[in-house]
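hey team, just a heads up i'm posting the complex here instead of the shared drive bc the drive is being weird again. everything in one block, sequence lines first with there labels, then the predicted structure for the whole assembly after. its two chains so it's a bit long, scroll down
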Amino acid sequence: MKKKSKMKAIKMKGFPWILPAFIFVLGIIYYSIFYTFDLSTLNWNGLDPIREPAGLSNFTKMFKDPIFWKAIKNTVIYFVFTFVIQNFLGFVFAAILHSKVKLGTIHKCLIFIPTILAPATMAPVFRLMFSPQGILQKIFDFFHTGVTVDWLSKSNLALFVLMFVAIWEFTGMSFILYYAAMSQIDKEMLEASHLDGAGNLRTLFSMVLPNCKGTTVSLLMLGIIGALKTFDIPYLITTGGPNHATEFLGTYIYRQGIRQSHLGYAAAMSVILLILAIVGAILTNRFNKEEK
Amino acid sequence: MKKKLVSILLVAAMSVTLLAGCGSNGSSTKKVKDNSTATKGEIVWWGWTPGSPANEEYVKAFNKEYPDIKVTWKQTTVDDYDATIKPALANGKGVDAFQVSPGSANGGVQVFGGQAIDLTPAVKEALGDDYKDKINPDSITTMTVNGKLKALGVGFAYAGSVWINQDLFDKYNVKVPTNMDEWVAACKTFKSHGINGFVQGAGQGAFNMDTFHAICDNVEPGLFQKATKGKADWTDKSFVKALQLWRELFTNGVMQKGALGIQQYPEANNLFMSQKSAMIMMGSWYTYNTLPANMKAAMESASSTAKPFTMIPVNFPDIAGTGNVGSMFGDLDYSTAISATSKNIKAATTFATWLGASKSGQQMIANALNVVPSLKGVTPNWDEVKLVNPAKQNEPVKEYYENAMKTVDNSRFAYINADMNQAMMDVLSGVAGGSISPKDGAAQLKSAQEESN
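-- predicted structure starts here --
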C-alpha cells in the first residue's frame, strides 16, 4: 500500500516536468492536423490573400485522379515486398548472430549501419550505382553480360530499385528488434524443443518466431505507417518518375502542394494519408489482440 | 475524476487549436514600418540563380555605389526554392528581396507576386516615364500581375541550341551534326571511343520541354508558342510529328542509355563538364561556363581536374528535315521582387532597380554571361570578356548572344502554367519511355490545356 502511494507521488511529481513538452507537442501536432483538415476544403496556393472555399471537391477530384491511385498501388506493392523481405532477413540475421558467430559485433555493426545513414547522403550513391555510368554497369561489363543498368529509367523496374534501397536501409532495424526479442526467449524452452527432437530450422520457425510475435506486430505497424509516409527515398532517387512510376502519397502531396501550388488538394491527400495510417494501426492492434 | 478532468482539458485544447486553424489566415500581409532609406539598410536577398560566388560578386559591385546597404545573399537549390520561400514569405520575416520568374518556372510570379510590392513607381523613377521603351517588353508583361509590376527583370535565358565540346569533336574528327542521320552517326562515333555523344537528364522534365520545344520549332516554327497561348491545337499533326521525333531520339542512339533515370543537374551537366559526353541541350545560362574561372569551378564540381575545354553553341540539328533551324526561345530567367512585409523596402528597392534598371548593374550582369540583360542596349563588353579559347569561341559565342537578343515572341515557360507544365513533363516522359504513343500524348496535352485554363 505504501509502495503504491509512493509510486503515485513520484508520478505526480514527474508530471510538471513533462508538461511543457506535452503541451508543445500536443499543440503542434493537433494544430497541424486540424489546420490540414481546414486547408483540404480550400482552393488556395498557400500565399494568395484570397482563400477560395472548395467544400469537398478536393476529395472528389482525388478519387478520380489516376496518379493518386497509382501512388496507393505503389505504396501497397512497396509495403508488401519491403516488409516481407526486410523482416525475413532481419529475423534470419538475428538468429544467426545469436549462435556463436566469429566477429559477431562487427557483423551486427555492418547490418545496422545502413539504418543510421541518412537517405539524403545515400541517394546520390544509389543514383550513380544504378546508372549506366555506375559501378554495377562496370561489373556487368566486366563479365560481358550485355546488361544495361538503366533500371531507374524503366517504369517497370524503378520501383524495385527503390525497394532494394529501402530493404538495404531498414533491414538493420528489423534485425536489432528481433535480436532483442530473441534475447528474451527462455533458453530452457529451446533446449526442451531440441530434446524433443526438433532440428534448428524447426526450432527457429516453430519456437523462436512465435515468441517474437510482438516484435513482428510492432514491425508490421511501423511498416504500414512507414510505407504510407514514404518520401525521401523516391524523392531523392527518382523524384517519383519516370512518368509517376515511383510516385508515393508523400511525393505526390509534395508535388501538388509545393510545385503546383494546389495546397488544398495536397491537404486533402494528407487527410486520407492520416486516415489510412490510423486505420492501419488500429487493424494491426486488433489483429494482435485477437491472436492473444 | 482526474482522468475525466484531463480528458476535458485535452478536448478543450484540441478545440482551441481547431478554431485557431480554421480562423487563421497565413497569407495576410501586415503593414510594417520601413526602417531603411534608399541608401541605408540591411537586406536579405533570396534566390536560386546564378549561385555563389556570382551573387556575392554582384553584391560587391552594388556596394561600390551603395556602401551603406548591406545585402546578404541566401541561396537555395532550384528544386527547393518554392518550398523554402513560401513559408518564409507567409511568415513575413527574413525576406526583403527575392527572385521570381514568369509562368511555371521556379518562383512563379503568379504565385509569389501576391507578397510583393508594386515596383512601377521605382522603375519610373529610375528610367523615366518612358521606361517601357528602355527595357525588354517581356520584363514588363510577364512580371505584371493584376496590373501591378511585381518584379523587375534582371536577365533573360534562352534555350534551343546544343552545346558541344569542340575539343572532342576535333580529337575524334567528328562532324558537327546538322540533321538526324549526322547526329546518330556522331553519337555512334563518340560511343566507339567510350564517350556519350549527346547527354540529356531526361528525368528532369523542364529540360525535356526545351528539347521538345526545339523539335517543335524545327517541325513548324512558332506553333509551340501559339499552342501555349491557346491559339493552336496540341493535337495538330506537327505536334504528333514532334513527339514521334522526340521518341526516336530515345531509340536511335542519340539519347544516352538510361537518360530517363538521370537529372540534367547534376548528372548530365557533370557528364558534359567532365568530358564524358560531347553534346548537351543547355541554354544561354551555359555561356557562363565559357569563362575560364567558371569552367574550372564547374569541372571541379564534376570531379574533373582536366584543363578547361572549348565549348561552343550550335544550332539544334534539323531532325525533321524542314530546314527550319536556329530557333531560340526564352524568357526572364529571374527578376527581383520586394516583399511587402519587409522592414527594408526602400533599401531593397534600391537594390532591385540597380540590378535590373541601372546601366552599371546591367553591364555587370551582361559581362557575367549568365543571362541576357533586361535593359535595352546593354551588351557584354567583349574586350573585357576573356573566354577559354578566344580563337574558336569568340565568334560563335558572340553570334549566339546576338541571336538570343533578337528572339521575340517565343517563350520558354511564360505562358505555361504549373498544371500544363506537369502534363507536358508527364507526356514527354511517357512518350520517351514508350508507355504513351505520340498521338495519345498530343491528345493528353490538349486535354491538359483545356483543364488548366
